[in-house]
Amino acid sequence: MNLLISRQHNERPFGAFPTTYRETIIMFTVETEDNHTKVVALDASGKHEDIEMYIEDNGRVFIRQWAEDLKEYQVLILSFNQFLSLMSCIDSEDGMFTVEIGAKGTKQ
């Protein structure tokens, strides 16, 4: 899958993440099952519960995290395109963007 991000506004650099987060070790696991892929993002500091993401073959993405105070998982359900939008924004500047998704092997 090829992603092409079209920048429509270039106002200022993305500055929401402190420099310390750009220079840290991240840990995650990936497990492939019959109908989904499970990704677990671990918090190396131990301050936050793990985040589990299930990417299903049908295009749905589930993200959940255990809420200790509620004694239950908090769950987000989104489309794969919404997930791609979230992942594409990490190093973006302020503004509105579009993401074009091409077929595998397609030159952009």
List keywords for this structure.
108 residues, mainly beta, five-stranded antiparallel sheet, 44% strand, globular, disordered N terminus
Strand order of the largest sheet: 2-3-4-5-6
The ordered string of helix (H) and strand (E) elements is: EHEEEEEHE
Total number of distinct structural domains: 1
Uncertain stretches of 5 or more adjacent residues: 1-14
Distance between the termini: 11 Å
Shape: globular
Helices, by number, come to 2
Helix/strand/pairing class, anyone?
mainly beta
Largest sheet: 5 strands, antiparallel
Number of DSSP-assigned strands = 7
Helical residue percent band: 10-25%
Q: How would you portray this structure in words?
A:
It is a single chain. This protein is mostly beta strands. It has one domain. Helices cover 12% and strands 44% of the residues. The protein is built from 2 helices and 7 strands; from the N terminus they run βαβββββαβ. The protein has a 5-stranded antiparallel beta sheet with strand order 2-3-4-5-6. It has a two-stranded antiparallel ribbon with strand order 1-7. The radius of gyration is 16 Å and the shape is globular. The relative contact order is 0.28.
Concise overview:
This protein is mainly beta and 108 residues long. It has two helices and seven strands, in the order E-H-E-E-E-E-E-H-E.
Record the SSE blueprint.
Blueprint: E1 2-7, H1 19-22, E2 27-32, E3 36-42, E4 51-56, E5 60-67, E6 72-79, H2 80-88, E7 97-102
Antiparallel strand pairs: 1-7, 2-3, 3-4, 4-5, 5-6
